[in-house]
Amino acid sequence: MSETHDHGHHHDDGGHGHSHGLVDDSIKRSREGLRAVSLSLGLLGAAAVVQAVVFAVSHSIALLADLIHNGGDALTALPLGIAFLLRSRRAEGYAGLAVVATIFISAAVAGVEAVNRLIHPSTPTQLWALAAAGGVGFLGNLAAARVRMRAGRRLDSAALIADGNHARADAYVSLAVVLSAVVVGLGIPIADPLIGLAITLVILRITWTSWLTVRGQTLGAEAANRERH
């Protein structure tokens, strides 16, 4: 009898994906997902605030494109957080679709602003601050990507993995802001909206790859659900 009692109170069995303790697996998965989402939200939110302040003084379209995208990326934490709170695989799939939609909308807004700046040229200022804002975006996205990817693999969450891949790509997109500051400093101001357009194209590619990832797991989850019923 004592062996049975002891076994019922063992803690989570490492990386084997099941629990012998008092906390249900789905609850632990929910908590870990919420932690990952909250941490990435904090990282990207802080980066977006810094970039917003710099945009207000530099008026760089390349930075605006990155800022819009980073801000939208931070907001994707909301549907993901709700899905983990509900402990629903189906809700995760819908959250993943919301992530993809947010990425696409950010690309569209950034593209419109870049085209508008090409039609109405204006040279960015405060180039040192602009370059620093690009660096902040790079570091913030890279850190958020690591948090999301690690949690996504542990929890087998396509939505988190897609969002992690998205943030990792965004880290290198942010370096384009640094490039914009350098090229404008060399006396080529038209490079700023052109780099903004290039960032838009990269975001559109991220939209497509994220859609394929989320769609694959969503369809798989729906097929499994039909089989159970």
Give the gist of this structure.
With about 230 residues, this protein is mostly helical. It has helices spanning about 1-5, 25-60, 60-75, 75-85, 90-120, 125-155, 160-185, 190-229.
Write structural notes for this entry.
With 229 residues, this protein is mainly alpha-helical. Helices cover 83% and strands 0% of the residues. It has helices spanning 2-7, 25-58, 61-75, 77-86, 89-119, 127-155, 158-185, 191-228. Helix 3 (61-75) packs antiparallel against helix 5. The longest helix has 38 residues, at 191-228.
Q: Name the poorly predicted regions.
A: 1-23
How many individual domains?
A: 1
- Counting helices, strands and paired strands, the structural category is mainly alpha
Give the SSE string: HHHHHHHH
Average pLDDT works out at: 78
Name the quaternary structure: single chain
For the record, the CATH class is Mainly Alpha
Main beta sheet, described?
none
| CATH architecture level-2 label | Up-down Bundle
Overall morphology: elongated
Measured by DSSP, the beta-strand proportion falls in under 5%
Number of strands: 0
Might you state the CATH topology name? Alpha-lytic protease prodomain-like
**Rounded radius of gyration (Å):** 21 Å
Which percent range fits the helix content?
Answer: over 70%
Distance between the termini: 38 Å
Continuous helix count: 8
